[in-house]
């Protein structure tokens, strides 16, 4: 399945709502349910579009079916950044996110020359997301206990990482 990554636009709001308001997506991510089109439009305008590196995951028709983002560190943390993603549930299990993660990693190591480490944080119960990172070459490093609140419950998180040297070696 061919995919492409592109910046979100305000005109994507209806397609964004189709996948981002999916209860299965919300239950496995930190996304919240949008109560209206204006609410989603405001989120795109104030949160998604201003992010330093956030892309819509699109199929051949160019319509967003998910997102992938990279948040670079700054100051003494500029050697690392974090990757995050979500995808509409009807597209799960097709290798789309693994392909997107692989595309992003090679891009961010070029666009952010100080970055030597990309990390991903995954709920210990989200086996599919863990597998995405493993298939993209990330290594599981450890667990952050009671690290964040996900769907009202304090959750343990696995830390995965990929170093620029790992990517160059493969």
Automatic annotation (TrEMBL):
One function term, GO molecular function aspect: acyltransferase activity, transferring groups other than amino-acyl groups
Gene3D superfamilies assigned to the protein according to its UniProt record, in alphabetical order: 3.40.630.30
Organism of provenance: Durio zibethinus
Name of this chain's protein: Uncharacterized protein LOC111307334
Location of the N-acetyltransferase domain: 3-156
PROSITE patterns noted in UniProt: GNAT
Superkingdom: Eukaryota
Pfam families registered for this protein in UniProt: Acetyltransf_3 (PF13302)
InterPro entries documented for this protein: Acyl_CoA_acyltransferase, GNAT_dom
